[in-house]
Amino acid sequence: MKKISTNKTVNLFILCCLLCSHQLIIAQCHIDDWTALKALYESTNGHNWYDNDGWELVKNDEPPIDCDLNYLCGIHNSYSCNVVLNENGRVEQLILSDNNLRGALPAELGSLTQLKILHIYNNEYSLKGEIPAALGNLSMLTELRLGGNEISGSIPATLGNLSNLKWLSLGGNNITGELPAELGNLASLEFLFLGSNKLSGNIPSTFGNLHSIQQISIKSNQLSGSIPSEIGNLSNLVRLLLTNNQLTGSIPAEIGNLENLKFFELRSNQLSGSIPPELGNLNNLFDMDFRYNQLSGSIPAELGNSSCNNLYLGNNNLSGNIPPEIGSITRLFDLDLSANQLSGSIPPELGGITELNLSNNQLIIALWI
User: Fold this and answer.
1) Which pTM was predicted?
2) Three-state DSSP state, 308
3) Alpha-carbon distance 208 to 222, whole Å?
4) What angle do CA 325, 299, 215 make, to 5 degrees?
5) How far apart are CA 156 and CA 163, in angstroms?
6) Which of 63-67, 156-160, 162-166, 199-203 is least confident?
7) Integer CA distances (angstroms), 264 to 51, 173, 259, 282, in order
8) How far apart are CA 326 and CA 49, in angstroms?
9) Under the phi-then-psi rule, with left for phi > 0, alpha for psi from -120 to 50, and beta for the rest, what region is 227?
């Protein structure tokens, strides 16, 4: 067998080292991640981002030999642009907020399979297009924040696949369509912000399966139908904000089970029926706002057992006497019962309330001694 010369052996060794070195470098630039980031850069006018340092590495048709995604803008905790890799060199965090993204989010983002945090919000209402259904492939995602843009279309049902998702924020866009029932599969979800969109249809009863949820805000949309009684299953719920919609029907008595509820706001809907006395069980309640609805019947005396600082029941069709028990709410600061059909005398127990509005009723004003 012919003996390989020393020089050839050395050259072969150097070539192997170069190939191994190339593979190690590419390990910091996974082809799927590089392809997804390239698509994002191109589809959102990346050359006009406020901060696009380092993104020149996605301008070619393939990753450069020295490709390293660690050099993308914001690796040192920039607020507007931050790309963080995990121990395997895969993209784990992508933040492009307040960064002048213009265009639409590409479907290729669904290839960032190690991604845990995706923040692309507040881009001067210039980010348009729809939410890619492929985002439902990001099984490790814990935070998805796309608020404050001009995103349209509907919420993809595939987002219901994100079993690790804790934070979903899509507020302040032009999103239409109905709330997907599949969102009820998000067993880890703690924060849901969908306000200031154009969502319509009912609140799915499957939302009663969001047992980890702490905050639900779907205010300022076009939701209709009734509030599902299954909301009463959400024992960790702290904020329930459904103001400025077109909700009808009555307030579910089951909401009285939400012992951790602090903010309960239903203002400016078309709700009718009476106020459930079970709401008096809400011992941690801070703010109850039911103004501008069509609620009728009397004010339950049981509300005196709650802990409201602010109780707003104005501009409804409530009738009967004001229960003196309302004055027993120890922390009550602001009480609005205006523009109802209340009658009888004003209980002296209300005399210690700082902000009291009883105007436009049929009440007898007596001298409190």
Assistant:
1) 0.90
2) coil
3) 20
4) 95
5) 15
6) 63-67
7) 40, 23, 12, 10
8) 55
9) beta
User: Using one digit for the tens of pLDDT, what is the confidence trace for 255-313?
Assistant: 999 999 999 999 999 999 999 999 999 999 999 999 999 999 999 999 999 999 999 99
Structure tokens at 69: 């995604």
Q: Which two tokens stand for residue 63?
A: 């990753």
Q: How far is the C-alpha of 307 from the C-alpha of 331, rounded, in Å?
A: 6
Bridge partners, 144 (sequence order): 118, 168
How many Cβ atoms sit within 10 Å of the Cβ of residue 327?
18
Rounded average pLDDT over 137-141 = 98
Question: In Å, what is the CA distance from 67 to each residue of 26, 41, 109, 368?
Answer: 6, 16, 19, 79
Quote the tokens at residue 200: 């319509």
**Distant-in-sequence contacts of 122-127, Cβ < 8 A, 24+ apart:** 122/97, 122/98, 122/147, 122/148, 122/149, 123/96, 123/97, 123/98, 123/99, 123/148, 123/149, 124/100, 125/149, 125/150, 126/100, 126/101, 126/102, 126/150, 127/44, 127/101, 127/102, 127/103, 127/151
User: Which tokens go with 288?
Assistant: 């109850």
Helices (H), the chain: 6-27, 31-43
Q: CB within 8 A of 16, min separation 6: which ones?
A: none
Report residue 104 as tokens: 């639409």
Q: Which of 272, 333, 279, 271 is nearest to 301 (CA)?
A: 279
Structural contact between residues 118 and 140, judged by C-beta atoms closer than 8 angstroms: no
User: In the predicted model, what is the mean pLDDT of residues 226-254?
Assistant: 98
Burial 140-151, CB ≥16 within 10 A → b, else e: bbbbbbbbbbbb
Q: 264, 288 in Cβ contact below 8 A?
A: yes
Q: Tell me the C-alpha distance between 204 and 202, whole Å.
A: 6
Give the integer Cα–Cα distance in Å for 318 and 331: 23
